[in-house]
Design brief:
9% strand, globular, three-stranded antiparallel beta sheet, 8 strands, 341 residues, three-stranded mixed beta sheet, 50% helix, mainly alpha
């Protein structure tokens, strides 16, 4: 599962960190997805090409992908695609009687060995469902020229995740996915990492001032002569597990995977979260962007007006000089001749 997690980040960094035409960005499908709309925290997505905006794009992609993987691919058995009643029953049974759930799941998996074509068909449908939902949500965050390669790699990624999960299905211990640091089951456990990507920025540093074209400028006094872009890992949150009980205002964007058995918990894969500082920085940029665009629009309008007035003055000057040389339309010198002739 660690490879599934790290591969998801690499996929996002490859396709969601490009400079985009801002008039083509549409975040409505992303914000309405359950992974983001279902949380009580605001998930800002600044419409710019700053490092903060790109970091939030990656985080949104991971949150949606992780949600879809849990709902469609990371299931106890592949028997039915449309109905989740069996998997829900196994989930409920596991909370009541772990041994009974493990036994029933093993029986089902052994029986389904004889129906490999059925399980393959179901897993294929599950994979297509994940690809379709994720691609439709983040389509506008991928450059148009890279959308087909993105979908192709997303299909490959989901198929590989499905193969990895088919092995995990056979484990005696049931795998659980934790999505909330405030969950009582997470107290005193180290299973979370702050999300660090090529676009990571430190919430402690001064937020980059975003302009209408999406460029960013480092406001720190020690950054003179440097560009406002962050290299991979620079100014990123510390890469060490954090006590889940110590942060209550974070937003989980990738679930932690654990295997529990009789109060014994094994951490299979760490989860990712956004800090409260990162959320606040993105919200600040999102609020500042409309004002910044209005200023740039006003500046463009003023330049256009100045240019128009300048052209009009230049035209008037030329017309005036011509008139002085040729005379007025009503001048007596202009005509067929003098009155006396």
């Amino acid at each position: 599962l660690d490879s599934v997690r790290t591969s998801a980040v690499k996929l996002a960094e490859t396709y969601l960190c490009d400079d985009l035409p801002l008039n083509g960005i549409n975040c409505s499908a992303i914000k309405s997805h359950t992974a983001l709309s279902g949380t009580d925290r605001i998930f800002p997505l600044p419409v710019s090409n700053s490092q903060v905006a790109k970091h939030m794009r990656v985080a949104a992609f991971l949150a949606i992908l992780g949600h879809e993987l849990r709902n469609h691919i990371f299931q106890p058995v592949y028997l039915l695609h449309e109905s989740s009643e069996l998997n829900k029953f196994l989930n409920d049974l596991a909370s009541e009687d772990e041994e009974a759930e493990a036994h029933l799941r093993s029986v089902l998996l052994r029986a389904l060995v004889e129906f490999k074509s059925l399980t393959n068909s179901v897993s294929t449908k599950c994979t297509k469902s994940v690809v379709g939902t994720v691609a439709s949500c983040v389509e506008s965050l991928v450059l148009e020229a890279k959308r087909q390669p993105f979908i192709s790699e997303l299909k490959t990624y989901c198929a590989k995740a499905c193969q990895e999960w088919e092995y995990i299905q056979k484990l005696e211990r049931r795998v659980e996915f934790e999505t909330g640091p405030d969950d009582n089951d997470l107290k005193d456990k180290k299973c979370w990492l702050p999300l660090s990507t090529k676009s990571s920025t430190s919430p402690a540093s001064s937020p980059a001032k975003s302009h209408a074209n999406g460029s960013s400028r480092n406001a720190s006094s020690g950054a003179k002569g440097t560009k406002g872009t962050a290299s991979a890992g620079s100014a990123s949150p510390p890469q060490s597990p954090v006590e889940a009980a110590s942060f209550l205002d974070v937003v989980v964007v990738w679930p932690a995977a654990t295997a529990e058995r009789e109060n014994d918990t094994a951490i299979l894969s760490l989860g990712y979260f956004l800090t409260a500082g990162e959320i606040a920085t993105a919200m600040m940029e999102q609020k500042e962007l409309p004002a910044s665009r209005d200023q740039h629009r006003s500046a463009r309008d003023n330049k256009r007006k100045s240019r128009t007035m300048s052209n009009a003055g230049h035209s008037f000057s030329e017309n005036g000089s011509v008139a002085s040389r040729s005379g007025s339309f009503l001048s007596p010198q202009v005509g067929n001749g003098s009155k006396g002739s």
